Task: inverse folding
């Protein structure tokens, strides 16, 4: 194995370790907060945390965000499974720690809600997600916060032009430059 390959392998192991640590901590926080919500909150009475902004109220949501798709919970669960697999594939393709962070948060959010759909299932992947953060217009959970935060980070990374794979981007830039040089030398030679 060349030095470049061993360096890349070590960097990949580091990104995978960071991804795994973030996911484990995030999933732990998500599941603990959901367990506490089920123990201490009521579906009928909200506990105001910040008046007009945030209350705590237990809700078991069969659908996705804002209750959408509540009749197709199994489909939402399958989409979450595929999303988690896609986040792992993307992790293996990026060389950016910032993108690794975003992917870890997205994975934790999708997996956190998928765990609920499996644990609280009454049939094939048709369980309900434990929501308890009531914003007045929507009720969510910590996994939803992770998904939102991941989306914001991804948008910022795209806006600031952070490459998903800097090594591949550098190789593509070099190939483009070489192609330009070849085309320029080909045009100049005919004059």
Result:
């Amino acid at each position: 194995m060349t030095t470049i390959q061993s360096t890349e392998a070590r960097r990949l192991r580091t990104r995978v370790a960071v991804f795994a640590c973030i996911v484990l901590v995030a999933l732990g926080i998500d599941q603990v907060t959901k367990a506490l919500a089920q123990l201490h909150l009521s579906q009928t009475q909200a506990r105001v945390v910040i008046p007009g902004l945030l209350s705590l109220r237990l809700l078991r949501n069969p659908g996705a965000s804002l209750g959408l798709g509540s009749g197709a919970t199994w489909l939402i669960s399958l989409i979450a499974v595929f999303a988690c697999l896609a986040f792992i594939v993307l992790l293996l393709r990026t060389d950016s720690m910032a993108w690794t962070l975003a992917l870890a948060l997205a994975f934790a959010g999708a997996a956190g809600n998928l765990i609920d759909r499996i644990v609280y299932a009454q049939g094939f992947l048709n369980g309900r997600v434990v929501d308890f953060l009531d914003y007045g217009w929507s009720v969510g959970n910590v996994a939803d916060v992770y998904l939102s935060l991941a989306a914001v980070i991804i948008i910022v990374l795209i806006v600031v032009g952070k490459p998903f794979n800097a090594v591949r981007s550098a190789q593509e830039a070099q190939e483009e430059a070489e192609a330009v040089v070849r085309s320029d030398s080909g045009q100049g030679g005919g004059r």
